[in-house]
Structure formats: C-alpha cells, structure tokens
What we know:
It holds the Pfam family ACP_syn_III. Keywords: Fatty acid biosynthesis, Fatty acid metabolism, Lipid biosynthesis, Lipid metabolism, Multifunctional enzyme. Belongs to the thiolase-like superfamily. FabH family. With 237 residues, this protein is α/β, with parallel strands linked by helices. The protein has two domains: 3-169, Peroxisomal Thiolase, Chain A, domain 1; 184-221, no CATH class. The chain has helices at 20-24, 31-38, 51-66, 90-97, 114-128, 151-154, 214-221, and strands at residues 3-12, 16-19, 42-45, 73-79, 104-108, 133-141, 159-169, 190-191, 211-212.
Amino acid sequence: xxxxxxxxxxxxxxxxxxxxxxxxxxxxxxxxxxxxxxxxxxxxxxxxxxxxxxxxxxxxxxxxxxxxxxxxxxxxxxxxxxxxxxxxxxxxxxxxxxxxxxxxxxxxxxxxxxxxxxxxxxxxxxxxxxxxxxxxxxxxxxxxxxxxxxxxxxxxxxxxxxxxxxxxxxxxxxxxxxxxxxxxxxxxxxxxxxxxxxxxxxxxxxxxxxxxxxxxxxxxxxxxxxxxxxxxxxxxx
Length: 237
C-alpha cells in the first residue's frame, strides 16, 4: 500500500476585496461588531471568478511550481458546497479551464470539513487508481449563497480556493490518522443552497441563502455538543 505526501500548495483569490466598513454601508453592522466577534476585517468576493475558475488557477499554479507532467495526474478532487452547477462538476470544469483532459475529476461536498474528507479520499485513490499524483482543492464562492441583508451570516463568508498536489510514495504512512464523523442530528442548524422546485405541485424545500441558528452553531464550533456529554479537546502532541 502506498501513502501520499504533499508536494506543493497553491491558492487563488478573487480580485475584489470587501471590508467590514463596506458591509456597514448596506446593513446594520460595523467593523467593531464584526471584528470583535469573528476576527474578520476583509473578505475576497468573486465577481468575474467562479468556483471552477478559482480551482483551475490552483491547478495551474501547482503544475507550474512542481513541473509535473499532467499525464501523471490521476485525479482532481474539488471540495465545495458552492459549485457553479450541479453538472458538470466544478472539478470537471476546472480540469477543462486548466487545459487538461482525461483525468478523473469530481466534487465532494462536506461543507466546512470538505478538504479533510477530500484529502482522506485522496489517500485511498492513489492505490485504487494506481496513479503517481493527484490534486486536492477546496474552492468556494459562498458569496452567491449569502443574503447580504442578514448580518448573522453575511459577515462570515468569502470566496477563494486552495489546494495541494499529492504524490503516491512507498514510505511509512504519512497520513497518521483520520477521524471523520458527521453530527447528522445538528444538520439543520446551518443550511444553504436549496434548489427551487417547480412543476408537479412540488413545494420549495427552503431558502437558497444561508440560514443559521447562531446560538446552536457557536457551541458546536467550540466542540461542545448540546445534549451530549462529550467535548472535543485539542489532541496533545
């Protein structure tokens, strides 16, 4: 069994920057209110860019930095909850935009933990596909899922992409452990991206914009789960 190592990293950001002061002009908020609660001062927002084009920028940078033959790339995984379309996948479109073809490319949606899920998936693919290299990217244009009048959610999100080129190696295991769990019972505390339903009397499922129960989400972010005795603690080195 082969393991994977990270060969290179790269990122791609949209050009437009939106500051807290910019947000204060369109909603009831302020730089002090946002920065004191989140630490955020600015965020990049995609205007011309897309989830796929940001991912493609990462692919191009990784290949340029590493001087790897694209023919040796076995797969491209894009972790995203904000694809440009349900089909084609952002990974497939990014492959095309990067000038590549014939590579296994697919999206993986696990929201905030998407990159962790994708990287763990990549560790298995290097063996099942018997390939030398793979690319794992997290790419989001969450600004298109934001209600820009809702300060509970709009201040939290921005756009961008980051990724890694991984190589299959015959060495001691480099991915020491992965512990993937989904707290399905808490799934409705933060939702986004419901598609409209039309025809045959189907009802709309929910809002396409972020909807958040902040009082429920905050303790989850800090490892405290309502109704559970367990608390996540940092693993000691």
